[in-house]
Amino acid sequence: MHSSGGLFHVPLCIIIGFPFFHEDSHHIYVHAGLNPQYENWKEQTKHEFMYIKEPFLNHPTTVDKIVVFGHTKAMDIHGKADVWFGGDKIGIDGGCAYGLQLNCLEIRGKNDYAVYSVNCSHHEQPSEADGIVLKKR
């Protein structure tokens, strides 16, 4: 938890009891990533689900599904706010909280994706004129 001016900021999933991950037939969705040091990734700590960066970002996963994650800005991974496709993982955090962009990953099927983004400048509110940028993958 972080404190700011007497207020405590707790991740929403903790407050309302959401699980720390979701899994389907081709993907694992998690806030920050999976710790590759665990033989059974579901046994990693809640803190790792929420905050891991290294070793997740720089090492292959130990799962046979693609891991879709946020928490780490794509800008910090590959120098752009666009969705990062890293083979066994996909980073979707466009850095909107930092004035960059909000990303959306549409999963159409196995290895079939469309990416959308909207500018998140804090100096001006997005309007319909800004539109949504479609980037085909």
From TrEMBL:
GO terms for cellular component: cytoplasm. One of its GO terms (biological process) is RNA decapping. It comes from the Bacteria. One of its GO terms (molecular function) is bis(5'-nucleosyl)-tetraphosphatase (symmetrical) activity. This is Calcineurin-like phosphoesterase domain-containing protein. The lineage of its organism: Bacteria, Bacillati, Bacillota, Bacilli, Bacillales.
